[in-house]
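Technical appendix A lists one of the benchmark inputs used to test multi-chain prediction within the project. The record comprises two sequence entries:
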Amino acid sequence: MNLKSIINLFSILVMFFSTSFIFPMIVSWVYMDTSLNIFITTFVLVFTFGLLGWYLTKGSITDLSQSDGFIIITFFWLILSAAGSIPFYLSGMSLVDAFFESMSGITTTGATVLSGLDELPQSILFYRQLLQWMGGMGLIVLAIAVMPLLGIGGGQLYKAEIPGAMNDQKLTPRIKETAQALWAIYLVLTLACAFLYFIAGMTAFDAISHSLSTVSIGGFSTHDLSIGYFNNSAIEAVCILFMLLSALSFTLHYFAFYMKKPLKYFYDPELRFFISVIMLIFIITVAINFFSFNSDASTSELLFQSVSIITTTGFSVGDTSGWSPSIGFLLLIGAFIGACSGSVGGGVKAWRVLIIINYAYITLKKMIHPNAVISLKIGTKSVDDSVASSVWGFFSIYVISFVILFLSLLITGMDFESAFSAIGACLNNLGPGLGDVSSNYQSVSPAGKLILSFAMILGRLEIFTLLVLLTPAFWNK
Amino acid sequence: MKIVILGAGRIGGSLARNLSKSNYQVLIVDQNKDRLSDLEDKLDIMTVEGNASSLLTLKKSGLDEDTIVIAVTSNDDANIIACQISKNAFNVKKTICRFKDDSYINQLDIFGEGIIDIPISPENEVTSHLIELIKHPGAEQIEEFAEGKVKLVSVKAKKKGKLVGRELKHIKDDIPDVDAYIPSIYRKGKPFIPQGDTVIKENDEVYFISSEANIEPIVEEFRNHEDSYSRIMIVGGGKIGFSLAKDLEKTYKVKLIDSNADRCSSLSRDLEKTIVLCGSATDESLLKSENIANIDLFCALTNDDETNVMSSLLAKKMGAKKTMIILNNPSYLGLVPGFIDIYIAPYRLTVSSVLQDLRDSDVAQEVILKTDLGAEAIEGIVHANEYTSPLFGNPIKDIPLPEGCSIGAIIRHGDVIMPNASVDLALNDHLIVFLSDKNMMGEVEALFKSS
């Protein structure tokens, strides 16, 4: 481990990140709001910090080992959240709130401590959306795409930052080109989404802002009522479409866009499974809604909510307080399954769940045919037992983390329903929960907010990357 | 440019390492998953698991008109078929095929016209390199330039050398009718460009350029006279050991040790004068009974680095005069100096010859001088003329080379010219350039571009 070269790399990444403050500056300048100084101050502060770090450790960059990769990824996300919270802090939020909001943005969770969004200056609103967009595909992946500095070590970082165990290998021989392709697809989706929002009736500002948080599976909105503010079914349809597209594996998009093989969409077992899960949950919610007397949801609301929650986006279209409570709970469980691997969404990932289910099925089959030799298959491809056991390992750690975080949140004094849903929503990078946290997280205690922030980064970095830093063995070398 | 390497063995692996660092897009194919994931962890390359000679695998690798296929599996048949498929079905730009059996090399058209563009034969290259070193005792490295007309030789200065402790210019007094050009000297691992008044010290590594005939007298300037070898012991009866023995057995007394009894009997059938011994090279009693103390040169050429190193150390301790080994693991290269007299990294030669084949520019030859330090020497042909390059027709000293690079010699019409400040650059000059770090390659290459 080479501290100097790690700091050097950090500094470069921090300087890189600081340039993103220029966009809210432009927004602030266009709308003549009061926050221009906040972003200028933050930009100068963060950039100077990066420049100083870079200057003091100049020329010490070396190849990164795998363990350096873990450190860099985790601390970079922490530093990013800290740096990202400066504008919130300067605009009058408490330190913990600012950190929570920033972390929630950058991990694409979409849980907020703010209310009265419609009164906030445009630049702050835009900045929140931008944070989600950058966090979605990952800033380090962006850095790999545009900067030549991350040689072989870049591969280690890339693997840790793209969500979901990539069941396919690299897309191109060079990691840099893979990163470029991913960001290009991401950018195209965002532009298309913004354009369609605009056509469907949003203002230009809302269209751009919402496209940033839709394609990143984030869920921040510029209005308290989220997508429901627009009360426009065309906008809801566009939103559903792009939430689904972004929740698919970007490998499939790559094959469709670059290799001209769009048919892959139809044959991908993970995609089929993912869509079936959404359909199944949607149908169940409709049934629940139909059979219970005190539930007043409309079918289109249920569809939107199913897609929004299961893809872990977290937009909403209306007041859910009149719904049967079992619907909210069912959707939250759906969020645990989450998006496809290699997408920008959260959750355990459809691919892992698919493996777990298949593995369980094989075990049952073996009880019926004790002598059968059955290999684990996803679609037509067989999967190594080692992959299956690592998926099981991931799942068990996911559950254990959930339980521990849940218990610690209960200790801070939260009620059972709110705590359960808050942890579920943050660990899966979903956003809104149930009970006290169904619209915002203002009522959570500062300690609770820190626990939830930890849950968010744990979920975004898929647990192992972060947990490995907490093992004594990692540091005893 | 996209390069598909078939076979992730030693050669494939070291090719992938070098090519991915030289900005090629590398994809490597092998049947062994562990090897692939090992390479993928270390290098920025893509891997495909599958049989190199199957259409399906090659399709998966995404071959197209811009791809270069390098077939380096250990199986000749698979390499040939893979080249045929890639050319016929995918029309790839270039195929490079490895042959173990060198009888094909001069009649590649029997596989179809234009199917195999470049044959390589790593074992033969290693063998001929070894033979060169054995013919010139004292030289530690010998590289050919300008199709063998000019050689670059490295020699370590020893106490008894005539020139040691004297200024370099006195070489003219000792051997007045021999031309030698000394472009670089490594002292304590650091290179510098010697001047006429540079005093040679013991243990300096001197690189000089001369013709084949002059190697001997120049080497003797730097170290005491060494008799040419007469008794040679070779360990390892593989392809390299066998062809070396075959070549040397006419002029030298050769003993060959191999541990496999079947292999030994087949070796003894194919070799005439060589004494084939069956046993372990690390067996002290075997070495003793074969009179190891009389051996002039002990060559350990097995595939196993550890066996090579340990058997050489043992042989040296028991009285062998000189040891020479091949080392595959690059990490060992920094360890053995001082313990082993001559060591070569066998697939380095193949890697540099493939690298040359791939380059667009007019670099005719590229040799790695120091693997651990990244030093290289290249031979480039000047294709720029007075219209395309401002350098043309001007004195050599005006060429803006990056720091750490120097022009070692100029070869004009087969003659070596000292790179004096007064020499003007001319069309078709071959320049031999020293690079202390191979990362400067790009900058230097630009000089030779024919634009």
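Chain B touches chain A at residues 2, 20, 25-27, 40-47 (CB under 8 Å). Chain B has four domains: 2-120, 141-222, 231-347, 359-448. Comparable benchmark entries are summarised in Table A2.
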